[in-house]
Each structure stands twice: as structure tokens, then as C-alpha cells.
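Quick one, probably user error.
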């Protein structure tokens, strides 16, 4: 009887995890198509559209709808049988490291490789991915500190309603909402998908699902490791997705923006007398 109860508990935990994955991972054709439209936007189109508003509303409703399930999901994912699974534990740790600090190393590495080898598209991908992550993390850090939500492991009664204004700025154990790792993963996924749709559209059906699927696994790992509630993950996914999309959309619509001119168009050439010449190159009549 005990073994049967544990089996049902494990099944419920997996079902809840998969449910969160289905909500937090927008890998369906609609989002992939939207990302490709972002990459092909003309200069006269608006940065934010009605479709963006609908998508934002969907994320908001999903986050609110998950609040009543937060406690149950946390308890069942922390069940001894589920936690004893070595594969889940190792996988959860691995995907977290890929997201943070991995996203910064990967983005920075691509940027440096592209600049050193003169491969503009690679540098573009690395810089805009990093830019999207930094932008998303700025929003997330502000919300974490302001809302001051306790992490699942903090209270013995596993209380997801423990919020306190401003508490998160001083106490990392009370900065749960939203999930920073999930934000980072989805920002990188959205930026890479948008950039890849621009440069390598033939791989769109591979890159999009792979990136968003990996990002969703990061969110699930944070729940499995008892660091975040399900609703933390959903809001993080929303912030990351929008940040990645809009950073790529804005920077390619405005190739002369100060950040891109500094990071992508600036070069330093040594001179024979020991000095250096700083130059900025922006191709005329070319849209990126």
C-alpha cells in the first residue's frame, strides 16, 4: 500500500512538472513564426503589437492560475521518492549551470570569437544574446527585491503567499518571485531564436524548439531543487521571452544605437608609433 501511494505521488509530481513545462515552454509554431516575423520587421512597424499584448496576457493569466497549485507542486516535487531519483537530481544541477553562469560565458565567448575572426553574425548573436539576458535580469532583480517572496525551502509549512514589500533587496532567501535562472534561460532562447531566424532560417524548426525546451527544463530544475515556486518560473519565462524578442527587434531596427556601435562596429588598430586608431564602421544602406 505504501509503495502504491509513493507511485501515485511520483506520478502526480511528474504530471505537475510536465504541466508547468507545457505552460512555460512556448515552442509551438505560433511563437516560432512570431519570432521570425520579429527578425523581418520593417522599420515602420511598431516595437510592441497587439499580438504582444495577447501573449503577455496569456503569461499573466498562467502565472496567476498557478498560484493555487504552487504549494502542492512544491510538496510533491520534494517527495522522497522523486528526490531519490539520481538522474533527475544530476540533470537539474546541470541545466541550472548551463543557464547561469553558462549563458554569460556562452554569449561572451561567441561575441569574442566573432570579433576576433571577423564573423559579424557570430558576434551579433553573442552580443545581442548577452544584452537580452542583462536587460531581463535588470527587470527580474527589481521585482525580486520589491516583492520579497519567500523561497519554498524557507518556511516549514511551505507557504507560497509569504510576500513582503522590499524584503528581497536585503535577503536572498526572500527573493523568489520571479525566477532569475528561468529569466536568463528564456531571454537567451528568445534572442538566439530571433537571430537564427534572421541569419539561418532553414534551421528555424530545430533551433526554436531546442532553445525553448532547454529553457523550460531550467525552470523545472529550479522547482525540483526547491528554489522556486511554479509561478516564479512562469513569470520568469514571460520576462525572458519578451526581453529576448524585443532586444533583437530593436537593435536590428536601429543598427546605429550606441551600444551596437560600441560593441559591434568599433575596432582598435595599432599604429607604428605605438598608438592606436579607433574606428567605427557601419555599412551604408544595409539593414541587419
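Nope, works fine. Designed sequence:
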Amino acid at each position: 500500500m505504501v509503495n502504491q501511494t509513493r507511485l501515485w505521488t511520483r506520478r502526480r509530481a511528474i504530471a505537475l512538472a510536465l504541466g508547468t513545462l507545457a505552460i512555460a515552454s512556448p515552442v509551438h509554431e505560433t511563437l516560432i513564426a512570431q519570432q521570425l516575423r520579429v527578425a523581418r520587421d520593417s522599420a515602420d512597424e511598431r516595437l510592441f503589437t497587439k499580438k504582444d499584448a495577447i501573449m503577455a496576457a496569456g503569461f499573466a493569466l498562467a502565472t496567476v492560475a498557478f498560484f493555487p497549485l504552487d504549494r502542492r507542486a512544491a510538496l510533491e516535487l520534494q517527495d522522497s521518492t522523486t528526490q531519490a531519483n539520481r538522474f533527475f537530481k544530476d540533470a537539474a544541477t546541470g541545466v541550472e549551470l548551463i543557464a547561469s553562469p553558462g549563458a554569460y560565458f556562452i554569449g561572451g565567448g561567441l561575441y569574442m570569437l566573432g570579433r576576433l575572426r571577423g564573423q559579424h553574425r557570430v558576434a551579433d548573436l553573442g552580443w545581442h544574446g548577452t544584452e537580452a539576458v542583462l536587460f531581463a535580469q535588470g527587470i527580474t532583480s527589481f521585482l525580486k527585491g520589491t516583492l520579497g517572496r519567500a523561497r519554498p525551502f524557507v518556511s516549514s509549512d511551505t507557504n507560497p503567499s509569504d510576500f513582503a514589500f522590499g524584503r528581497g533587496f536585503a535577503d536572498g532567501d526572500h527573493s523568489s518571485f520571479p525566477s532569475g535562472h528561468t529569466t536568463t534561460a528564456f531571454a537567451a532562447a528568445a534572442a538566439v531564436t530571433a537571430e537564427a531566424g534572421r541569419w539561418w532560417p532553414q534551421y528555424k524548426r530545430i533551433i526554436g524548439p531546442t532553445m525553448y525546451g532547454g529553457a523550460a527544463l531550467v525552470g523545472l530544475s529550479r522547482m525540483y531543487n526547491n528554489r522556486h515556486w511554479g509561478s516564479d518560473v512562469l513569470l520568469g519565462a514571460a520576462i525572458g521571452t519578451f526581453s529576448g524578442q524585443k532586444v533583437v527587434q530593436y537593435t536590428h531596427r536601429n543598427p546605429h544605437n550606441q551600444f551596437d556601435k560600441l560593441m559591434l562596429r568599433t575596432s582598435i588598430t595599432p599604429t607604428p608609433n605605438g598608438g592606436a586608431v579607433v574606428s567605427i564602421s557601419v555599412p551604408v544602406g544595409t539593414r541587419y
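Residues 276-280, 283-288 have pLDDT under 50 and may be disordered.
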